[in-house]
Amino acid sequence: MIAFLGMGLLGSNFVRALINKGNSVQVWNRTTSKATALEAYGAKAFAGVTAAVKGASRIHITLKDDHTVDEVLAAAAPGLQPGAVIIDHTTTSADGAVQRTKDWKARGFTYLHAPVFMGPQNALESTGYMLVSGDQEVVATYLPVLKEMTGQVVNFGDVEGKAAGMKLIGNSFLVGLTAGLADTLSLAKALNIPLSDVTGLFGEWNPGNGLAARVKRMTSGTYDNPSWELNMARKDTQLFIDAANKAGVPLAVLPAIAKEMDQWIAKGHGQEDWTVIGKNSI
């Protein structure tokens, strides 16, 4: 018997996939209607979280944050059977994941943090990526059931909380990428360039192909053989900003980047590769 707590878009599709594989699943959600909606697929819904976990040897969680996870698990605790394993897919702080692993172990339970890079469709199709780290005996024990839920499980070794940290790193990239794309589309708007032309450009030229090389260049610690000088990158960045200002189109990210570039130029790095602006991150 499996219990699943948190019937958002991700959790509800995880449950459907588990049922499709022949598992019996008990579900709970703070908004009860979201749990009862899963009964149409064969789940058993509960209004109370304590009742939802009774008889379950494995409890999966997809909630909002550290506070919500702690709150829900505290409420569920009286219903947990001895030796139950708690597998948490919530994006949380690394410190929170470490503390919960320690606390639940002291109470006789296994807590494994397994955050994901998955959307709702991935959860339904058992594709995407699931991250784990910590006690490798625990990871090895539950790796088979995790592999059934996702396309790939990435094991980051025996450091507790590292999976949580890697999830935050990945999400930070997605946030930065999306904000940067928003400014890119704003610039296209300012220049009266149709979105179809922008998507056509990225269909032909995929800057993502250079991501690994860009990371390597930024973290090399040497920037004296530039492929694009910081001075020139700053000049182009001003062209972006000027075009947007002229059209009255606001930019969220590029002005902050220009400010960072100016600081590095003022320190004498203008003729170095523009990736020098990431030097302090090494």
Structure description:
The protein is an alpha/beta fold and 282 residues long. The chain folds into 2 domains: 2-160, NAD(P)-binding Rossmann-like Domain (Rossmann fold, 3-Layer(aba) Sandwich), CATH 3.40.50; 166-278, N-(1-d-carboxylethyl)-l-norvaline Dehydrogenase, domain 2, CATH 1.10.1040.10. 50% of the residues lie in helices and 12% in strands. The protein has 12 helices and 9 strands. The strands form 2 sheets. It has a 6-stranded parallel beta sheet. α8 crosses α11 (230-247) and α11 (230-247) runs antiparallel to α12 (254-266). The model has no long low-confidence stretch (mean pLDDT 97).
Summary keywords:
alpha/beta; three-stranded mixed beta sheet; oxidoreductase activity; N-(1-d-carboxylethyl)-l-norvaline Dehydrogenase, domain 2; 50% helix; oxidoreductase; Rossmann fold; single chain; 282 residues; 6PGDH_NADP-bd; six-stranded parallel beta sheet
